[in-house]
Amino acid sequence: MKPRLTIQLTASAAVLVFAVGILSTGGKADWGWLDLYSYAATAAVMTYWLWERVVWKRPLVQRLGIVSRDISGTWQGTLTSLWTDPGSGTQPDPKTAYLVVRQTAFAVSVILLTDEAKSVSSLASVNSEDGIASLDYVYLGSPGITHEDRSRMHRGSASLNITGVAPTRLKGRYWTDRDSRGELDFTERAPHRAEDFEEAARLFEAEEGEK
Predict the structure, then answer these.
(1) Which of the listed residues 93, 100, 116, 148 has the most CB atoms within 10 Å of its CB?
(2) Contact between residue 92 and residue 122 where contact means Cβ atoms under 8 Å apart
């Protein structure tokens, strides 16, 4: 459901209660219906907050297909770079990567973590068309200070297909303004949102230990 439509509906509900309050007093000025309006406005705001933060991600609502798929949490997977070293003619080995997704009904942000760099989205969206869902975003990549000699700051974009209504996989490609590209594939997910690479690694080590 689009944010604009949701706002219109909640505002309309408040106006409707306000109008009913006026009519119930015969159309005459009565300060009593102002109490009804304040209650309606409060209820509308609370309903909006509950929908945005909680209700939209409930399994039943997700299955209805009227909201974005819930992909929030920390995902573990691999980053495979297709960049070729001009000196050796070889490509880097795939490396472990973590994708941290923060999401509400109407907004999403993404952070990609590797042992060398951190990429933060500046624009992101979860889209669905003809039953095919995807996470699409643009980002700014910042290497760690010890890796700046061979990996400079850059901008890029990524598009990841989302598998499952209750998502089990994010897989797709990325491109950068350094003329490099590659593949991202995430298959493990934890509900907690990690702050850095080390914390993300510990999340999945703990999950493995519990199995």
Answers:
(1) 100
(2) no
* Structure-block tokens of residue 201: 């690694």
pLDDT more than 90, % of the chain: 52
Beta strands per DSSP E along 34-116: 73-81, 95-103, 108-113
* Region of residue 159 (left: phi > 0; alpha: psi -120 to 50; beta: else): beta
> CA 135 to CA 75: how far, in whole Å?
13
**Cα–Cα distance measured from residue 171 to residue 161, given in angstroms and rounded to the nearest whole number:** 5
Residue type, 50: L
**pLDDT attached to residue 65:** 84
The token duo for 169 is 């996989």
Distance separating alpha carbons of residues 42 and 27, to the nearest angstrom: 23
Contact 99, 124 (CB under 8 A): no
Length, in residues, of the chain: 211
Q: How many CB atoms lie within 10 A of CB 190?
A: 17
- Closest C-alpha among 59, 86, 84 to residue 70: 59
